[in-house]
Design a protein that fits this description.
Blueprint: E1 7-13, E2 19-25, E3 33-40, H1 63-68, E4 72-77, H2 93-107, E5 112-118, H3 123-134, E6 139-145, H4 151-156, E7 157-158, E8 161-162, H5 165-179, H6 194-199, H7 206-211, E9 224-229, H8 237-246, E10 251-256, H9 261-268, H10 271-287, E11 299-303, E12 308-312, E13 321-328, E14 341-344, E15 353-358, E16 369-370, E17 376-377, E18 383-386, E19 394-408, E20 414-422, H11 427-431, E21 438-447, E22 479-492, E23 497-503, H12 508-511, E24 524-529, E25 537-544
Parallel strand pairs: 3-4, 3-5, 5-6, 6-9, 9-10, 10-11, 14-18
Antiparallel strand pairs: 1-2, 2-4, 7-8, 11-12, 13-14, 13-25, 15-24, 16-17, 18-23, 19-22, 19-24, 19-25, 20-21, 20-23
Length: 546
């Protein structure tokens, strides 16, 4: 077990009479002290556990560090979790209002200097957006680290497609850690059937509007430090970028480079990250100190593939050029896939199309099949469109868009899209039909019946879908689909290739926690068109190269 600072526990009666449990980790002395508040469904009495990716929901950061530096670290159990009363209903209005009441209470205590800041990763961060939106007296700033603000679009129904994460993996985990806390005391049952609740709302309706902080980001006027993680495009990344773009108070954005949730969790729980990145922010806004946070650029972003940090005044950075590659039926000869198509800067000519039928008989684990060496091969059983080897490094930073013209034998279809970097391969390996090394960079999703765009919120590079009134497609009819691929900063190396992958599902092999259900009605054939009349195309935000 890890060393946990001494805590005292209090119960706070909130707006509707429910009592919310709060743990206070207090510094030595009488104060007054600034307060950082973390709120989550994960039970503060689980803080005795080591902060390790084995306990992926331990996302408080190093509590002891803040206590040593003269902060009160306050942590509340969300309604219906841990020792708090009420019933958990996943980001509902009561859960939001509880934050207002707790922050107000904290700011009025005799040991408080009246200033409260939000802290914490993932769900903790999701609740920080709501802290700031409500503007409670005493809230002085939030450091929104790695957290979504639109649960429908960011995870539960990506592109309108129901995902496994929140209803299955996450809710099962949350119920287990509430039922079996580290000290074995105060076991908590949670009667909410979140899996069913989410499935009862497949379209973006009032249920989701109530829980969508993204609709209110323009109300955030407290100082904001939004820190996103490139490796979390399946869940949180866009939330941090949009939070920065739309908040109206003092704000800065920092995009960092952990490659997945486990590395991001480990980094957030390190003292080093908090000493270098977060404490200067809190010291400035909660203690009134002059720190180096003041002199940091408005935007700092890590470029994956380059191992470099760039600075800018805006996101996307000024000077980005949006460069388009068209999908083509010509073969690249570089990869074994269902089609081995190409990406070309020139426009396609003639009426060309690429079809795939599903479920593919070679799929073994999701859409992943096996190669001739009996190893999983993510490319072999999907559609690919690949550039020629790059003549120079290609660096991108910003939003990414894919336009597809497609039809189906069904009245709906799903697009799962990945952008990957493909490495060179020897002729000997290619001759053995082994696929070249590659790794995915970012992803996008869209269900055809959710194709309707919101013209008020869509931009040239970021199509925004309403998801409010899904409409089936007519079998055999060609439709245009605008797909927003999650934003990214990445450098593709000279000699490597940019590869686009398209299929109608995913796999635990390639997508870990972030998979989607493959439903029994998904049997048919989809066709993608790439011609002068139907120019399917990928557009990248290029900062260097091309």
């Amino acid at each position: 077990m890890s060393h946990e600072p001494q805590r005292r526990e209090v119960m706070i009666r909130v707006h509707d009479g429910v009592e919310i449990a709060l743990a206070l980790y207090m510094p030595d002395g009488e104060g007054p002290f600034p307060v950082v508040l973390g709120a989550s469904p994960y039970r503060y009495d689980n803080n005795a556990l080591p902060a390790t990716p084995q306990f992926l929901w331990r996302e408080t950061g190093p509590i002891g560090l803040y206590v040593e530096r003269g902060y009160v670290y306050a942590q509340m159990d969300a309604r219906g979790c841990g020792k708090s009363g009420g019933e958990f209903r996943f980001l509902d209005r009561n859960e939001q209002k509880d934050l207002y009441d707790v922050i107000q209470w904290l700011s009025r205590q005799p040991w408080s200097n009246g200033k409260v800041g939000g802290i914490g990763q993932s769900y903790f961060c999701m609740l920080q957006w709501w802290m700031a939106i409500q503007r409670p007296p005493g809230l002085a700033c939030i450091a929104a680290f790695d957290g979504l603000n639109d649960p429908y679009r960011a995870s539960v129904y990506q592109g309108g497609i129901l995902g496994d994460f929140f209803g299955s993996y996450w809710w099962n985990q949350n119920r287990i850690i509430n039922r079996h806390p580290a000290n074995g005391e105060f076991s908590r049952e949670q009667p909410c059937d979140l899996n069913l609740l989410l499935q009862q709302h497949p379209a973006y309706d009032e249920f989701w509007r109530e829980r969508c902080a993204a609709e209110h980001l323009h109300q955030i006027d407290v100082p904001l430090y939004s820190i996103g993680v490139w490796g979390k495009v399946d869940l949180h990344t866009r939330g941090n970028i949009e939070g920065f773009q739309r908040a109206v108070g003092p704000k800065k954005l920092k995009m960092i480079g952990p490659v997945n949730a486990f590395v991001a969790n480990r980094e957030f729980n390190s003292r080093e990250l908090h000493e270098a990145v977060l404490l200067p922010f809190y010291d400035h806004y909660l203690k009134g100190l002059k720190t180096d946070y003041v002199d940091r650029p408005a935007v700092e972003y890590f470029v994956r593939g380059a191992d470099a940090v760039r600075s800018a005044e805006t996101w996307p950075p000024a000077g980005v050029r949006y460069v388009t590659w068209h999908l083509s039926a010509e073969t690249s000869g570089s990869v074994t896939s269902l089609n081995d198509g190409t990406l070309t800067r020139g426009k396609a000519s003639g009426e060309r199309a690429t079809s795939h039928s599903y479920p593919n008989p070679g799929w073994m684990i999701g859409v992943v099949g096996f190669g001739p060496n009996n190893q999983p091969d993510p490319a072999r059983r999907v559609l690919t469109f690949t550039t020629a080897p790059l003549e120079r490094d290609l660096e991108i930073a910003g939003p990414i868009k894919l336009v597809l013209y497609a039809s189906s034998t069904r009245d709906d279809m799903d697009f799962f899209v990945k952008l990957s970097e493909q490495m060179p391969q020897s002729a000997e390996e290619r001759g053995k039909d082994l696929n070249p090394a590659s790794y995915w960079i970012t992803k996008g999703w869209l269900r055809a019946s959710h194709r309707a765009l919101d013209p008020r919120k869509s931009t040239d590079m970021e199509p925004y879908h309403t998801h409010s009134d899904p409409q089936p497609i007519e079998p055999g009819k060609i439709y245009r689909f605008d797909i927003s691929i999650e934003p990214m900063a990445h450098r593709f190396k000279k000699g490597n290739r940019v590869r686009l992958e398209i299929v109608n599902g995913d796999s635990v092999i390639t997508d870990m926690l972030w998979t989607h259900y493959y439903t029994p009605d998904k049997i048919g054939t989809d066709t993608i068109y790439h011609s002068a009349e139907h120019p399917s195309a990928l557009t990248l935000p290029v900062t260097e190269g091309a």
